[in-house]
Amino acid sequence: MPFFDQARTFAELWPLIERHAREVLDDGKFSHGRQVERLEQELARYTGARYVVGVNSGTDALVLLLRAAGLRPGDEVVVPAFSFFAGASSVVLAGGTPVFADIEPVGYGLDPAAVAAAVTERTRFLLPAHLFHRLADLPGLAAVAQQHGLTLLEDSAEAIGMRRGGRHAGLFGAGGVLSFFPTKTLGAIGDAGAVLTDDEELARTVDALRHHGRFGRTIGDFRAINTATSLPGFNSKMDDLQAAVLLAKLTRLDADIARRAELAAAYEERLAGQRGVLRRPAVGGVEGQVFYVYLIEAERRDELAAHLARHGVETEVYYPSPLPLQPCFTELGHRPGDFPVAEAACAHTLALPLYPELTLDQLDRVCELIRSFYR
Ligand SMILES: *Cc1c(COP(=O)(O)O)cnc(C)c1O
Fold first, then answer.
1. Which CATH code, of 3.40.640.10, 3.30.700.30, 3.40.309.10, 3.30.450.40, is assigned to 7-250?
2. Which of ligand 1's atoms lies nearest the C-alpha of 192?
3. pLDDT number for residue 223
4. Rounded mean pLDDT, 68-85
C-alpha cells in the first residue's frame, strides 16, 4: 500500500482540470496569469486572508515573506529544532540567522519557554511551524513575541484548513505561507506555494519580489504595471497549470479534510492502548485540527517500519534528524543533547498512510500489522 496515492482523485477531477487547463492554453499566459489570479482570489475567500500571493513553492513563500517583513542581514529568527528543513533554510536564504529552540513534547509545536530562553538582542522574528495535524501554541508564542518585541510569522505550509477562533493559520501574526507540494492537503502536480497576509504593504512587497522586484501587478490599488524594478527580486512566479489543478482540487478540499478526519479517528480507535505506540503529537486539546499527516511515536520505530514495508505498507519518517544537527548548521556549534525533545521525536516518529483515497480495509491492515509486530 503506497504512503500516498491520488490516482482516483485525479481521474474524478479530470474534466474540471482539463477545462481550467484549456483556459490556460487559450490565454497563452503560462505563468503569473489569469488562473493564478483566480486561485489567489479563491484562497483569499477560503482562508479569510485579505491578500494571497501565489508563488512557485512553499519554500520561496517563506523566503519572500521574511524579506518582505523586513528581515535584514544579521537579524535572528527563532525557528523550531524539529520541522521541515525549509523552516530554517528560508531564514538563511533570506539573509538572516536561524536560532533554534526546542519543541514541546505533547503537541510538537515550538515551545514558548524555549523561545524566551533563545532570544537575544538581535532577535527580531519568530517563525513557528504548524505540523502534521495541529497548530502550535499560538497564544503562548504571541505572548513571547510581544514581550520581546518580535514579529510573529508562521510556517503554515502544512496548515491549510487549520483555524483557531475562526482565524486561519498564517494570519495570527504579520503573515504566513501555504505549500501546494503534491502530498500536501491541497496538492498541485508539481511545486507551488503562497503567502497569506492581511498587511497590504507586505503583500505588495511579496508581489514585487516574486517577479524580479516589479511593483504593481495585482495588489491593492496599485494596478498599473510598473516595469521599473526598485528592489532586486526573485523569479518565484506560480505556473498557471498548477493554479488550474489547484482550482479544481479546491472544490473538494473540505470533503478531503473531512475524509482525513474520519480516517484519523479510525486510527485513533484501533490504536488506542496499543503497546509500543504513543499518540504524538496528541490529538485533541487544540482547536482546528486538520490531518495532513498521521504520526505516531513508536518503540523500535525502524524495526516497525521494516515490518510494515515487508508486508507492503509504505511509511515515512518525519523528520529523521533535528535541524540544528544538519551538516549545514555545524557552525552554530550544537551537539546531540541540546534539543532533547526534538531528538526524541526524530528517533521515534513514524507517519502512517493517510490520504482521502485510503480505505478502511487498508487502514485495518496497517493496524493489524502494528498489533502483530508488538505481540
Ligand atoms: C512542505 C513544507 C515546506 C516547504 O514547502 P515546499 O512547497 O515543498 O517548498 C515548508 N515548511 C513545512 C513545515 C512544510 O511541511
1. 3.40.640.10
2. 7
3. 45
4. 97
